[in-house]
Amino acid sequence: MDSMGVFVWLILVITIISRSHADRNVYPSAGVLFVHVLEREYFKGEFPPYPKPGDTSNDPITFNTNLKGYPDRPGWLRYIQRTPHSDGVLYGSPTAEHVGKPTIIEITAYNRRTFETARHNLVINIMGTEEFPLPYQAEFYIKNMNVEEMLASEVLGDFLGAVKNVWQPERLNAINITSALDRGGRVPLPINNLKEGVYVMVGADVPFSSCLREVETPQNQLRCSQEMEPVITCDKKFRMQFHIDWCKISLVDITKVVPVHNSRPDPGTGVLPDIGEYNPPSESLKSRDYFADFLVTLAVPCAVALVLFVILGYSMCCRREGVEKRNMQTPDIQLVHHSSIQKSTKELRSMSKHREISWPLSTLPVFNPVSGEVVPPIHPDSYESTSMPLMQTQTNLQNQIQIPQQQPSGKWYS
């Protein structure tokens, strides 16, 4: 590499380092909306170019913002970036207590293609003015806007122009912008181009107009309680571009708000009072007898359980009446009756086994007309007739005699 190439390379490195460490100063006013756009184009020169010409703008770049020396941003400052291919936005509304205190925000850009980073500082010098905060403040809820859309200068200017036509103040400024998601709103469904909604607080130096006061009428309050849209005469001036939920509008006159001061206790000198010499506990511990604890914890419950087991066993096993005691307590005439009933029952059961019945025709002896032999019945004499079926199937016949078939000569053969 020649000397000219080395010189150009050093110049390029020095330029990148100086750009990555350069501080940008901004001067917002207390009580006025502050918006700072983190442009991706500003950081693209600090990353190596894309191999294909013309595709440099497609590098996905994300930003990380934090207060210098701390992991997060100040409480009044918010940050939003929808996609790695869109610009990031820092926005918020500083208060009077931040006046005169420079706030250094570290901005780190990450190139998701090359995994390289670039960093620079944003110094926020908050200025104080006598005109702010403006005494009359109104907060509008716009349903058809996202916060990054509302932060665009042209959109915010159109909204402030519509408010000025309705309010007619001499001085009008946006005080703060808050996403509905930061107020407990829910993420909308990705259909019908639904938006999450945004709250915009506006301040003016004159009292609220009659159009804005229409929200406080009893008729409109009743309609809002019934989830119906109130009747506002100046709504048509916003409806062309902004859909305002008039039931969520807030009108505040800070001149009539009673300030609440929290009384803080005196922090003191931070030195502990003198309470004498410190006496630590002794190293030797006194012995303790745990026998009484053992009796209360284990021995007493076991003894009670044993006594209950003995009582239950005596009641179940040793207090049974038995047959003899039962017979002794039963009158003799009742025992005689019971005995006679048992004997009669047994006798009837024994007689039922030997009773004579008319046998079905299928069970009578069969006479062979050729041989003259009598086939005995299919059941023995000891067969219990009470369980014999009335009809017998051919498959159940054990002693079935086959009848010889007639031969052509006309003679019978056994």
From TrEMBL:
Protein known as: Epsilon-sarcoglycan
Keyword Cell membrane attributed: yes
Residue span(s) of domain Dystroglycan-type cadherin-like: 25-133
Annotated GO CC locations: cytoskeleton; dendrite; Golgi apparatus; sarcoglycan complex; sarcolemma
Residues annotated as signal peptide: 1-22
Top-level taxon of origin: Eukaryota
Family of this protein: Belongs to the sarcoglycan alpha/epsilon family.
Gene that specifies this protein: SGCE
Keywords recorded for this protein, A-Z: Cell membrane, Cell projection, Cytoplasm, Cytoskeleton, Glycoprotein, Golgi apparatus, Membrane, Signal, Transmembrane, Transmembrane helix, Ubl conjugation
Species this protein is from: Electrophorus electricus
Membrane-topology descriptor: Single-pass membrane protein
UniProt-annotated location(s): Cell membrane, Sarcolemma; Cell projection, Dendrite; Cytoplasm, Cytoskeleton; Golgi apparatus
